[in-house]
Every structure is written in structure tokens, then in C-alpha cells.
């Protein structure tokens, strides 16, 4: 995954932009991947690890009523996470992830492997993506990180 993290860094640096992460099921793995890139301090603003619902609210401003209504693993919540990361930082783009990594915690509506991602950019509509990943906990989390970084590149290329 270092290759894609390096690509993200190059694209951000070329544009004079920085990013923030808002992570739940990945537990900081996205930030870990980008900080493995030498010079990432030039383009990584910060990372929020908001595993609990309380942390999503206190750190990112996610509305508890939205969590109660839609669940932590929902499009509505990841939108608020990504937009909250932008508001609470000086970043130009933020990626957010919330999902069911397993092996337990899944339901009929949201089985293990269900992962929502959102990308928010200053002055642009927030983009979301629902994923249904296969595999064990480690695999679901790894696929989430990969997709999150790919999405950052997609947003930068379409900006």
C-alpha cells in the first residue's frame, strides 16, 4: 500500500494541499500508511481515530441523533465524519471510514465487510461509497484503507 500512499502524497504536494483522516474500523491505519511516506508532514494535517460513537460526536461533531437513527456504519455518519474532520482541521481534503470489520458485529442489513467511506473537500460536494468486502477482519480493514486512499486520488483528479 506504500505505492498508493506515495501517489497520494505526490498529488497533494503538487497541489499545495493537505489531508485529514477520520477513522473508525481502520483504527488509524490510513494515517499509518501515509506517515510511512517520507515527507508526509508536508501534506498530512491530522488523523482522528473515532472508534466509539461518543468520540465521533466529541471529536468530529457527528450528531448523536444521526448515529441513533442510521447507525455508526452509515452514509450519513461517514459524511458527518469527513466534513467534521475538515471543520476541525486546516486540511483541504478529508477521508472518513466506518464499517463492520468482524468477525462479529454484523447484521442482516449490515453484514461483516460492510464499510462506508466518504471524502470531503473544501468547496466540493462530499462523495460516498458503500463497500461489501470479503475476508477476515484484517482483510476487511486492509481493503478499506486501500479504497480510502484510491478515493483520495480520485477526488484530487476530479477537482
Kindly describe this structure.
- This protein has 159 residues and is an alpha/beta fold.
- It has one domain (2-154): CinA-like (Maf protein).
- The protein is built from six helices and five strands, in the order αβαβαααβββα.
- The chain has a five-stranded mixed β-sheet, sandwiched between helices.
- Helix 1 (2-15) runs parallel beside helix 6.
- The chain is globular, with a radius of gyration of 14 Å.
- 45% of the residues are buried.
- The mean pLDDT is 97.
What's the topology here?
Elements: H1 2-15, E1 19-23, H2 29-35, E2 44-49, H3 53-60, H4 64-70, H5 75-87, E3 93-99, E4 114-121, E5 127-132, H6 137-158
Parallel strand pairs: 1-2, 1-3
Antiparallel strand pairs: 3-4, 4-5
Helix pairs in contact: 1-6
Could you give a quick summary of the protein structure above?
With 159 residues, this protein is α/β, with parallel strands linked by helices. The chain has one domain: Alpha-Beta Complex (Maf protein), CATH 3.90.950.20.
The fraction of residues in strands falls at 15-25%
Number of strands: 5
Question: So, CATH architecture?
Answer: Alpha-Beta Complex
| Spatial strand order of the main sheet | 2-1-3-4-5
CATH topology: Maf protein
Low-confidence stretches: none
N-to-C order of helices and strands? HEHEHHHEEEH
